[in-house]
Write a structure and sequence with these properties.
684 residues; alpha+beta; D-amino Acid Aminotransferase, Chain A, domain 1; OB fold (Dihydrolipoamide Acetyltransferase, E2P); 6 domains; seven-stranded antiparallel β-sheet; elongated; binds 2-(butylsulfanyl)adenosine
Length: 684
């Protein structure tokens, strides 16, 4: 065996190897995703996830051109021709569009166009919907539809004339003199039709489609035109490639002409300059969910066809048009770390640190991973490429992990044994999904969270004492328990010394603190932050026990005897008041002047001993608020109607409870009657 001498070969740097590994993995995954999407019509990733992986590969290829594969998936325009259909070469290639994502990109696009046209004048633009379907090119010979071809790879597409002819809003015969007309546009499946199709597929147990575009693509790729005919497809024309009458010189005129010939066209409008585009884009983005079909952005086109010709193309994209896409709601990025945050009740929440990524129009760097159970469900590790979703105003979350892209040095996200803030032991909840710091109020993280809760609007309602001040005062040793809030006035000079806290603001803050001393017992109980005690339970406890001292001495049994309080909450309450530290804080609060009106003795309240039920929806306030008002009058509010029910309040759309009350002969109050009743007690 001859020995091989490797010593003269250049040894690649480990960093380089890491990059090339990543590029290879990305290319492989993109190919798989493209195959699933274009060929099988069964996407395995959201478009925006595909797009962000693709942009990552493009960036790596730009930074390391030597490592780029010759036939990288970044180099193809789109699909592949299926062999079951006849391939047809396009007379004029079907290209794609560049993208702009914000006002600055848009201004750049306009600036480049003006520079190229060598003009200082504003350019007139035409704006149209970017329909989310699939592009087809149609040929009409002497007015008759003779050929329909998909985009395919841009140069060659699939012949799908028979399927296209089944589309109802598409004219098969048109009144034109032109021997040849070539029209391009988008085939879409309207949302309503898509939903109906999927409902039917579900009932029949056949394949459902991921989105309307895939449903449209799948429908056109059927060899049996009967299937396409049964699908709710529509065609919208957006450009005339050959055969436009010469006197028509703008894109908007071309669309009007198409419309006159009987084609549907996407909504469009003309803007005299680039300026109004942004505002229109935002309006349309806000309204898009009301449209009958899906659009994924706006296409901005230079309106003058002469100018379009002058501007020409840059590789595969026109210089005279661009796509202003709506922000993607999913994107991929790397999870670069994980931290554990400690909340008010000591719950440990894992927070993922991300390589910053733009999703839903916002840069996201942190993402909640909820709890240890969720980490296990996702199987996520630090180093993983993750799919992050941010739809509407929902907090961003990780919805998937691309395990094929996991690097060799990925590390598991481990639950710490000790609290990262106070080093107390971490304990797992019974279901093994939630973890908690056992340090309770010695834990600084739990202390600040408890302070933030205490001052919140529905608790002691101290305006002006925001999270940042609490954290800062806490860090400076001014606040450790909630009672310290009422001692802040002794540190006035020090408060004024705080950055950005002017004399006046300190006055206001101390004023708000002073005011909050006059409170109501339910607010104070809620503000103490006892586990399991929300606003409603706090209200219940206040009415049941009347005096705070009674509540503090209550046994688990007496608490459990209250309807709506379970054994776990009862334990939490007993545990809370058994703590000497908590007893001290409560005593301090009272010493410092926190007070509340003495409640009427329970038996003296007007509705004592009565059980009420509320059903349906009320106009004046929520059912919860209505319940609080009744409880303040001494009534019990129950969840179901029985023969012991004293009154049923029935709002709009009351259902089974109303029927039951009627059958049992329980007195029913309408909302108006209920309000009149409350007014008698000054409770409305
Ligand atoms: S014009 C030279 N107008 O977007 C390119 N395209 O990435 C001309 N699309 O494949 C395209 N709505 O399928 C144009 N109003 C519209 C469009 C539109 C959707 C699609 C089209 C194309 C892709 C470009």
């Amino acid at each position: 065996m001859s020995s091989v001498d490797n010593s003269s070969k250049p040894i690649s740097e480990p960093a380089d190897r890491k990059v090339s590994d990543r590029m290879r993995q990305l290319a492989k995954l993109l190919r798989e995703q493209a195959h699933a999407y274009y060929v099988l019509d069964e996407p395995i990733a959201e478009d925006s996830a595909y797009d962000s992986l693709r942009s990552e590969l493009v960036a790596l290829e730009e930074a390391h051109p030597k490592l780029a594969e010759q036939d990288s998936p970044t180099k193809s325009v789109g699909g592949q021709v299926l062999d079951k259909f006849i391939s047809v070469a396009h007379d004029v290639p079907m290209l794609s569009l560049s993208n702009v994502f914000n006002a600055a990109d848009l201004a750049d696009f306009d600036r480049r166009a003006r520079a190229r046209l060598n003009t200082e004048d504003s350019i007139e633009y035409e704006l149209e919907y970017k329909l989310d379907g699939l592009a087809v090119s149609l040929r009409y010979e002497h007015g008759k539809l003779t050929q329909a071809v998909t985009r395919g790879d841009g140069a060659t597409g699939e012949l799908i004339t028979s399927n296209i002819k089944t589309i109802r809003n598409l004219p098969k015969q048109i009144a034109t003199e032109a021997p040849l007309l070539e029209v391009r546009g988008e085939v879409v499946m309207p949302k309503a039709g898509f939903e109906k199709l999927n409902r039917e597929a579900e009932l029949e147990g056949t394949k459902t489609f991921a989105n309307p575009r895939n449903a449209a693509a799948g429908s056109l790729r059927q060899l049996d035109p009967g299937i396409a005919a049964s699908r709710p497809l529509a065609f919208y024309g957006y450009s005339v490639i050959q055969g436009l009458p010469e006197q028509l010189t703008t894109q908007s005129a071309a669309l009007n002409w198409l419309r006159d010939l009987g084609f549907s066209v996407p909504d469009f409008e003309v803007c005299k300059s680039v300026n109004p585009i942004l505002e229109r884009y935002e309006q349309i983005a806000a309204e898009r969910s009301n449209l009958p079909f899906e659009i994924d952005g706006m296409v901005i086109k230079v309106n003058s066809l002469t100018k379009q010709e002058e501007l020409g193309f840059l590789s595969r994209e026109p210089r005279w048009a661009t796509a202003f896409k709506f922000p993607a709601e999913q994107a991929t990025t790397r999870l670069i770390g994980a931290e554990w945050q400690v909340g008010r009740t000591g719950q440990l929440t894992p927070v993922g640190k991300l390589e910053p990524v733009l999703v839903g129009g916002v840069t996201v760097q942190n993402v909640t991973l909820h709890n240890p159970g969720e980490i296990e469900r996702l199987g996520v590790m630090v180093g993983d490429t993750v799919v992050v979703e941010r739809a509407g105003d929902v907090i961003p979350k990780v919805v998937g992990v691309l395990k094929d892209l996991r690097p060799a040095d990925a590390t598991a996200i481990e639950l710490p044994k000790q609290c990262p803030v106070c080093a107390s032991q971490v304990v797992m909840g019974e279901d093994e999904a939630l973890a908690r710091c056992s340090g309770a109020l010695i834990c600084p993280a739990q202390q600040t969270a408890a302070l933030i809760h205490f001052v919140s609007r529905r608790a002691m309602d101290i305006e002006g004492l925001g999270d940042r001040w609490i954290e800062s005062f806490h860090a400076h040793g001014l606040l450790s328990s909630v009672a310290d809030i009422y001692r802040l006035k002794n540190h006035k000079e020090q408060l004024i010394g705080f950055e950005k806290l002017a004399d006046k603001s300190v006055e206001n803050l101390l004023g708000a603190i002073e005011q909050s001393k006059k409170t109501a017992l339910p607010r104070l109980i809620f503000g103490l932050g006892i586990r399991g005690v929300g606003e409603r339970t706090a209200q219940l406890l206040a009415t049941e026990f009347g005096e705070l001292t009674n509540l503090m001495q209550a046994s688990a049994e007496s608490l459990e005897a209250i309807h709506d309080i379970g054994s776990i909450t009862a334990e939490f309450i007993v545990e809370f008041f058994a703590s000497p530290r908590n007893q001290q804080v409560i005593a301090d609060l009272i010493d410092l002047g926190v007070h509340w009106p003495k409640p009427l003795a329970k038996t003296d309240l007007p509705l004592s001993g009565q059980s009420w039920v509320i059903t349906g929806s009320l106009d004046a306030f929520s059912r919860d608020v209505a319940g609080e008002k009744l409880m303040a009058l001494g009534a019990k509010v129950a969840g179901s109607v029985s023969k012991n029910t004293h009154r049923l309040v029935a709002g709009e759309k009351a259902g089974s409870k109303l029927k039951k009350a009627e059958s049992l002969g329980v007195t029913v109050l309408s909302e108006a009657e209920f309000l009149a009743f409350l007014a008698e007690f000054d409770q409305s």
